[in-house]
Amino acid sequence: MMKYLPERHCRIASELELSSGDEEHAIPGYVCSVPTKVMPPGLFVRESYEAWVEIAEKFPEAKGILVNSFTCLEQNAFDYFARRPENYPPVYPVGLVLSLEDRPSPDQRDRVMRWLDEQPESSIVYICFGSLGILEAPQIKEIAKALDLTGHRFLWSIRTNPAEKATPYDLLPEGFSDRTASRGLVCGWAPQVEVLRHKAIGGFVSHCGWNSVLESLWFGVPIATWPMYAEQQLNAFTMVKELGLAVELRLDYVSAYGEIVEAEEIAGAIRSLMNGGDTPRRKVKEMAVAARKALLDGGSSFVAVNRFLDELIGAEF
């Protein structure tokens, strides 16, 4: 996308328009055309759009670009940049770069992990929207209703606004905790790496932050996409449409716009994720194996790191 933005700006020197949401963009490295509605929300605001373009225009001046991904995951994109289009700097796929150690929070961690240990294998849908994914009460009620509709076991991490001093349980519909006590756990913070590693986890309803995407792939857990902000809409589109590695809940949702996703839609995505034949579970498991191979001696990311170091040592930066 950062290669595409200056090219588009030369033709159309203005921010993207929400009204042209279905207009498509031929972004270098993508097989699929990318609709406007899944581009980062900042590109629809003049000030932030101009900042994005200004940064993107500096990319050709770089000596190299390190990308937290690996060749097998985004083969078409890395093949494109390997051809060095228009003398663009070399792109090095050096991922996955992940921290597999969670931040310490012993009280919550132990409670969550003890509960997971008691659950059947691949039975739990994990719901979490990242550290900044704070939802309003009406949306939380729709998610709760969806969990009532599906009957699935669940682990739900609800982040609350620190300024309001509310607990996750304050936001739940009346009676929800009692109805779901035998099959669900609600928490605030969750040790996500340990959660995704656990054999009880069968699916992940995610905001599609890139770290969460990579963690889910590393542990072979399929995602249902519900982006919130930043570049997450494009990540969701990439995972569902470009790579076929996720189930679509939403691709173009932006939390700041205030839309409420209704329970029936959420429940349908959870059913597809946990039960449906269209869940890309096998493909995600294969990608987990490929991710590990990429990091081994001779793997694609291992080779890319060495190539970058050779360039770094041998060139005058």
Let me know the CATH homologous superfamily of the largest domain.
Answer: Glycogen Phosphorylase B
| Helix and strand element order | HEEHEHEHEHEHEHEHEHEHHH
CATH class group of the largest domain: Alpha Beta
Termini, distance in Å?
A: 25 Å
Low-confidence stretches: none
Helix/sheet category: alpha/beta
What about the largest sheet?
Answer: 6 strands, parallel
Oligomer status? single chain
Which architecture of the largest domain does the CATH hierarchy give at level 2? 3-Layer(aba) Sandwich
Coarse shape: globular
Tally the structural domains: 2
- Give the total of beta strands: 10
Pfam family, one: UDPGT
Keywords: Glycosyltransferase, Transferase
GO molecular function: UDP-glucosyltransferase activity
Family: Belongs to the UDP-glycosyltransferase family.
Structure overview:
- The strands form three sheets. A six-stranded parallel beta sheet has the order 7-6-5-8-9-10, sandwiched between helices.
- Helix content is 40%, strand content 11%.
- The protein is an alpha/beta fold.
- The protein is globular and about 60 Å long.
- It has two domains: 116 residues, Rossmann fold, CATH 3.40.50; 180 residues, Glycogen Phosphorylase B (Rossmann fold), CATH 3.40.50.
- 35% of the residues are buried.
- The model has no long low-confidence stretch (mean pLDDT 94).
- It holds the Pfam family UDPGT.
- Belongs to the UDP-glycosyltransferase family.
- Keywords: Glycosyltransferase, Transferase.
